[in-house]
Amino acid sequence: METMGFRDPNELPEEVRSVLSKWRETSSGCEVVSPRTQGFSGATIYRIATAAGMFCLRKWPEGGLPQARLRELHRFLRFLADRDINELAVPVPAADGPTLVRLNGRLWQLEPWKPGEADFKQNPSGARLRNAMHALARLHVTAAEYEPTAQGAKWFFQSAAAPSPAVESRLKMIQEWDSNRIRVAQADLDRLHEAGAVADEMLRVFVLCAPKIEAELSSVRESMFCLQPCLRDVWHDHVLFTGDEVTGLIDASAARSENVASDLSRLLGSLLEDDHPRWELALDAYSTVRPLSDRERGLVRLLDRSGVLLSPLHWVEACRSPHTQRNAGVMSHVIGRMTELNARLRSLAESIGGI
């Protein structure tokens, strides 16, 4: 969502005015085009127009990612850009050198605003799908060469053979949503009318499907995969197109080491949903740049299925948030996302005989 820009610099909040002075690119002659939007990482984002072009000013949330992880992420993004992976935005160093600026106890960064629109579903052509797969594969091939700092190795490491962290975390999440937690959530949702009805259905389908997906995840819990730095949150709204070309992969805040199947499942599930023939075409296109083993292809499918099961739980929790319940616009967005996810969840249930 975008809002009207600040035409007079004096209208800017004091902290925004102060932090913009830290970068040469924004220290004079800039305009905030979008004063305040919320990023998927929880960051507050300002779109900045300058004589040098458009920039994104990002204010990280309180209690967000550790500063050491953000510094390593910025180093990783610079590594990719230096090797011609140009779809990602690389944070700009401030005038005194670092890419992170601390102001009023919060961390800020400035990065180029990537061109393009997240409009694949308005034009889901074969050329666009192929280009998205090639862009992601090139990124993965290059990311596999990244050598982290000693401090950053806990997030951006390489391993030729290790269990998938995503498998373990999803098993844990299924187990955390036990019958007691579901009963409490359903009791909270009873009073929410439309949102509560959608969320309640999602929880009932979750209960039906969870044992099957838990068994599938458990079957590969000890399996070894190649791990490397991945984006981990590359999906429809984060892939920008100009014409048929991918010109932006935005919000890399979730990046850390995982098998490439994590990125592929997230992206293809959001672009193609349950169009299985196109999934195969997309994986074949990816494999022309970065070959996939049969086990990795199987992991792509499993992570998609478990993602379909678990993603709705985030929105169920969002429904229960007082902030959501006080804000009609936020609640409308939550209901819309739940309705979209519920269609895939029901399809999953039908595929395993749950409903």
Report on the architecture of this protein:
The chain is globular, with a radius of gyration of 21 Å. About 50% of the residues lie in helices and about 15% in strands. It has helices at about 15-20, 65-80, 125-145, 165-175, 180-190, 195-220, 260-270, 275-285, 295-320, 320-325, 330-350, and strands at about 30-40, 45-50, 55-60, 100-105, 105-110, 160, 225-230, 240, 245-250, 255-260. The strands form three sheets. Strands 1-2-3-5-4 form a five-stranded antiparallel beta sheet, covered by helices on one side. The chain has a three-stranded antiparallel beta sheet with strand order 6-7-10, covered by helices on one side. It contains eleven helices and ten strands. It folds into three domains: about 10-110, Phosphorylase Kinase, domain 1 (2-Layer Sandwich); about 115-165 and about 225-290, Aminoglycoside phosphotransferase (APH), C-terminal lobe (Aminoglycoside 3'-phosphotransferase, Chain: A, domain 2, Alpha-Beta Complex), CATH 3.90.1200; about 165-220 and about 295-355.
Write a brief caption for the model.
With 355 residues, the chain is α+β, with helices and mostly antiparallel strands.
Keywords:
single chain, 355 residues, alpha+beta, Phosphorylase Kinase, domain 1, Aminoglycoside 3'-phosphotransferase, Chain: A, domain 2, 3 domains, 5-stranded antiparallel β-sheet, 3-stranded antiparallel β-sheet, 48% helix, 15% strand, disordered N terminus
Note the topology.
Elements: H1 14-20, E1 31-38, E2 44-50, E3 53-59, H2 67-82, E4 101-103, E5 106-112, H3 126-143, E6 159-162, H4 165-176, H5 179-189, H6 193-219, E7 225-230, E8 239-242, E9 245-249, E10 256-258, H7 261-272, H8 276-287, H9 294-320, H10 322-326, H11 328-351
